[in-house]
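User: quick one, fold this
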Amino acid sequence: MANNKSKPILEIKDLKGGVEGKEILKGINLSVNGGEVHAIMGPNGSGKSTLANTLMGNPKYHISDGEMYFHGQKINEMGAHERARLGMFLAFQYPSEIPGVSMDQFLRDAYNSVKNDSISVGKFAKYLRQKMGVLDMDEKFASRYLNEGFSGGEKKRSEMLQMAVLEPSLAILDETDSGLDIDALKIVADSVNQLKNPEMGVLVITHYQRILRYLEPDKVYILMDGRIVETGGPEMAEILEEKGYEWIREKVGLSE
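Assistant:
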């Protein structure tokens, strides 16, 4: 659960912005401490993925106002690679396939880039085996081409392995639970629970309550029309499961 003594890893202050000239985020405020799991829930078009991409520095997304701080350092103008080196990680909803590039090759290149290192093949192989052991993964998985022919669950396990290797201090999971059956969902949730620690914050972006049953968030935000319209504890996700989003719309005066 939350480490109340830790300083915020991520702080977002009145963040506004969007994509292709359209303003989608209309003043987001939140902070995440080490050891905490925060969830952002909301219907389609509410701005969830826009927030994830803006946080990670996707160049297609613009910031029109507000500030983002990571470990106290303003990151508004930083590129995605700079943010990754600081310790930010984004797990994608639809991971890309890269035929001809093995998992272990890709992960070693990513490690060297993010850590600004040049770890040897042998040393990295040992490091990778250790991380796969933590996630209870078959070592043969590392020799497969990146996401090629992977099932939905295997693609998400691939993302979790990347997170394990890169050891971020902030993990952003953008609808990582999308399209997963219950077994794959539990694998992803178990992986996050294995990897989280008092020095790492987790920001889960999701439509559904089901993954939160396994991750036990410290805080749940409801995002609608580019704004956080409601904040609560884990019980907020349970209420959404029961009532849907209409009761929130009526409460805050938003039409569908």
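User: anything notable?
Assistant: The chain has one domain: 8-93+150-252.
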